């Protein structure tokens, strides 16, 4: 078994190994080429910070890392750790971490973070063994919004101002929903908004590839007026073919959790957000 960065590995090789590794996951994942391309681009994938395990030159395990900033510090985000079923039982995850973590530290990164589904006890034990600790719990929801309705007052924003919109947030989003990722998503995400004059007072952003809502918010001065509900009904009407999903909602954000259930979404899983100081 050989270990090397993913700098010389094609996106298609990464996708093939990713899909095989996650085919029997607690929540099976199978990404199309378009979805994988978007994931890597939006999350800030850095192949030089990532590592693969190669058996006879075939990628059989990988840790995908993005590089950026987290809570003001340079950080690596682990957007996917997986080993194909035929190569398990060789401690490849631990060996890949042993290979890449010193390199992340040498690059000046201060911490590494990841998420793991509650109930995936083997992975959780592995990450704890490497030195990660749980810093918060994140809940996920999905469902079809009742009474979807196109709202003529809702506008599509060409260029959302994330500097302004993040002022609406009550809690810090996970990495893949951070302002930097939302900015990188560009026009591949669609942001719908209600305005007062020229000023946005409420918005909801959707990724049409997955029907996932990575971000939404209402200004504090305009809450309890049904604005978020109007946006969710509008988004569901615009993208009716699949249920809406929201992942990684801070489990302590009682107001957000209450709203999501009131609008018709159901809780379906919890994740541990974990960090490791390098």
Automatic annotation (TrEMBL):
Residues annotated as domain N-acetyltransferase: 1-158, 152-278
Keyword Hydrolase annotated: no
Annotated Pfam families: Acetyltransf_1
Keywords recorded for this protein, A-Z: Acyltransferase, Transferase
Keyword set includes Magnesium: no
Matches recorded under CDD domains: NAT_SF
GO MF, one annotated term: acyltransferase activity, transferring groups other than amino-acyl groups
PANTHER family, alphabetized: ACETYLTRANSFERASE, N-ACETYLTRANSFERASE DOMAIN-CONTAINING PROTEIN
Protein name: Putative acetyltransferase involved in intracellular survival
Source organism per UniProt: Cesiribacter andamanensis AMV16
Lineage, top ranks: Bacteria, Pseudomonadati, Bacteroidota, Cytophagia, Cytophagales
